[in-house]
């Protein structure tokens, strides 16, 4: 049931070791939370998984395939999709258009098919609109479908970012600080949507987040990082009671 495996990942920048011998697995249909103090290596590890950095050592395996050398778009096509800490929506486009633009493998992007307005293009666009409508209703953004994305609040933009990622129909969604800058009411809504996607649609998530309380609420497994390595891994209860993680956050010796 393993969907994603990191094995011995190491990444250095000059003389600085950002990630050092990181190994873990993500099982299907679970939420894995990644926590750690600033400088723990969370962001670099996340970029290694998403393909934005190439590891100096180690491998990334997704659904049984070694994807270590694949570009980010090639990983997306295989079902490994990421969001960004700062939402990447197109502010000058409406919410619905942002969703439709995120559809994958649109035959209308090919010049001849688009010019001919073939039935396959029309069918794809109809299905994409149906999918976007379903997701906007699920995320409670349907009433904002005709609003320009630039007019949304920070929390609404995070929900739109999640919706755009879901348009790619991912098997595993990598969430980068999804609660950053989101007010408490929208945080609760976002967390509930993530849990609903796991429970009702069998999706898998890996979430890097500073909000420890949120991570403990939604995660099946928590990975605690410190100084570029995995310091603790287990259930939320196990990681919360790990004295080494407490020391790492409080600045004591590990």
- Overall structural domain count: 2
General form = globular
CATH homology superfamily of the largest domain: P-loop containing nucleotide triphosphate hydrolases
Care to count the β-strands?
10
Strand content bin: 15-25%
Q: Which blocks of ≥5 consecutive residues have pLDDT under 50?
A: none
Main sheet properties: 6 strands, mixed
Number of helices: 10
CATH C-level class of the largest domain is Alpha Beta
Radius of gyration: 19 Å
Helices and strands, in order, run as: EEEHEEHEHHHHEHEHEEHH
Report the CATH topology name of the largest domain: Rossmann fold
Written account of the structure:
Probable component of a branched-chain amino-acid transport system. One of its GO terms (cellular component) is plasma membrane. This is Probable branched-chain amino acid transport ATP-binding protein LivG. Belongs to the ABC transporter superfamily. One of its GO terms (molecular function) is ATP binding. With 254 residues, the protein is an alpha/beta fold. It folds into 2 domains: 2-79 and 170-250, P-loop containing nucleotide triphosphate hydrolases (Rossmann fold), CATH 3.40.50.300; 86-153, no CATH class. Helices cover 39% and strands 24% of the residues. It is built from 10 helices and 10 strands. It has helices at 42-50, 72-77, 95-101, 111-116, 119-138, 154-166, 184-201, 212-218, 236-240, 243-250, and strands at 2-13, 16-27, 31-35, 57-62, 65-66, 80-82, 172-176, 204-208, 221-226, 229-234. Strands 6-7-8-3-9-10 form a 6-stranded mixed β-sheet, with helices on both faces. It has a 4-stranded antiparallel β-sheet with strand order 2-1-4-5, covered by helices on one side. The model has no long low-confidence stretch (mean pLDDT 90).
């Amino acid at each position: 049931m393993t969907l994603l495996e990191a094995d011995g990942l190491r990444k250095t920048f000059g003389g600085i070791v950002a990630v050092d011998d990181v190994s873990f697995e993500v099982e299907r249909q679970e939420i894995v939370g990644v926590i750690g103090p600033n400088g723990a290596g969370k962001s670099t590890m996340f970029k290694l998984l998403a393909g934005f950095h190439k590891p100096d050592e180690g491998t990334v395996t997704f659904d049984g395939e070694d994807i270590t050398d694949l570009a980010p778009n090639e990983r997306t096509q295989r079902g490994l999709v990421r969001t960004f800490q700062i939402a990447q929506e197109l502010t000058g486009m409406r919410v619905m258009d942002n969703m439709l633009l995120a559809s994958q493998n649109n035959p209308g992007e090919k010049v001849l098919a688009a010019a001919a307005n073939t039935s396959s293009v029309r069918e794809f666009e109809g299905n994409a609109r149906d999918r976007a409508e379903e997701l906007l209703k699920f995320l409670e953004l349907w009433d904002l479908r005709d609003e320009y994305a630039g007019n949304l609040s920070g929390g609404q933009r995070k929900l739109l970012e999640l919706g755009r990622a879901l348009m790619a129909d991912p098997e595993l969604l990598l969430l980068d600080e999804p609660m950053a800058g989101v007010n408490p009411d929208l945080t609760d809504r976002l967390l509930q949507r993530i849990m609903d996607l796991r429970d009702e649609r069998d999706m898998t998530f890996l979430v890097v987040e500073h909000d420890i309380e949120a991570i403990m609420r939604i995660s099946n497994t928590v990975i605690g990082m410190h100084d570029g390595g995995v310091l603790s891994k287990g259930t939320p209860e196990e990681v919360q009671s790990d004295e080494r993680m407490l020391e790492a956050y409080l600045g004591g010796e590990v």
